[in-house]
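Hey, quick one: can you model this chain's 3D structure?
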Amino acid sequence: MAKNFDVVVIGGGPGGYIAAIRAAQLGFNTACIDEWTKGGKPAPGGTCTNVGCIPSKALLQSSENYEHASKHFADHGIKVSGLEVDIAKMLARKDQVVKQNNDGILFLFKKNKVAFFHGRGSFVKTSAEGTEVKVGDETLVAKHVIIATGSNARALPGTPFDEKNILSNDGALSIANIPKKLGLIGSGVIGLEMGSVWRRLGAEVTVLEALPTFLGAVDEQIAKEAKKAFDKQGLKIELGVKVGEIKNGNTVTVNYTNAKGEAQVLEVDKLIVSIGRVPNTIGLNAEAVGLKLDERGAIVVDDECRTNLPNVWAVGDVVRGPMLAHKAEEEGVAVAERIAGQHGHVNFNTIPWVIYTSPEIAWVGQTEQQLKAAGVKYKAGTFPFMANGRARALGDTTGMVKFLAHAETDEILGVHIVGPMASELVSEAVVAMEFRASSEDIARICHAHPSLSEATKEAALAVDKRSLNF
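Sure thing. Here's the predicted structure for all 470 residues.
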């Protein structure tokens, strides 16, 4: 017998579980379907929680602790002897962090009275009267359906992931022993973060990037500063390469052509492929109900996340826009509120981006090259962390904060940070831009001393060429 709901969410990742909770808060009888399994038990949270954002941050923290102990504690007068890495323990801690998040989501479902169904959801039929969704032996009928099925790692053509030698983000988070040589194809977020983890632990890491520029989406000045830091750390990054045949045996051999057109061979113990992600509609049975997909395989939606089907919505990685967990969450909330007749809103111009390397890279708004290309008149101000007292005390003075403001109105157009705790510092810029603040507004606000956030104030002051500490 079919079970009836006001809202059924397919997918329990950041977009899905947040949409389900918000819908329940708004008084809707809500269900969420998710098929992730860990240790034979349901593990909601999607790629982000299980093999993405959360476990990668756990390993980044562990590896950073090791690097501090092995290379930097001596500067603080702390002597360490007999330092060892226990990879099994490190991975176990990572798994425990993941489980805590899985269990937390299940608790939130119970707290908010969201019905949870474990399995893969697929469409049976849809109409204005209701949409029928199958999950295992259960049939759910919903007035509204929200699709939040996320994305999958993109494999190189002809080179499938075996998660033993050729790894996606999933396998990269579960390497049992420190590889002597590690190769990465793609210098995006996942590539740089995973490269940083294993480089800190002792692997010789080489990154092959097809594009001629490093971090092309990042402000050019910030990207150059970041690359200088990575080069100094020993992360070998080759740009403008063309990858050819890849042989997978006891080791992985990558044949490629470098930027000069010279044939090269890279032999590594493990190869992580990080060349982007593709929308996940596997098993959704989209064709049976006429759900429209675009040429990338993403579900086609309008500005309010409506699909071409009545009362069927889609959010997160499976639709247009940046594949970011927090973007998915905001869309999930917005859709639940739209179903309730409210005016849910997501401002794509103020979505922050973060790369959790060391130094961290974070930004919001437009880059200097984008403003130049658009012919927008702007002013720029920068402030280096080497002139910040708290950064000196931390022993981490790499990088800077950069403000871009309109030349005439002084409205903040973009803020770009490379340096310590950039992921936290960028939030001030997001708030400021949401309120359409000027650089003068930030420059006039009192910031605690000593704090890293003073670098933000000083960069805002620098827009008007009146920085006080540099």
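One thing worth noting: The chain has three domains: 3-152+278-346, 166-275, 350-463.
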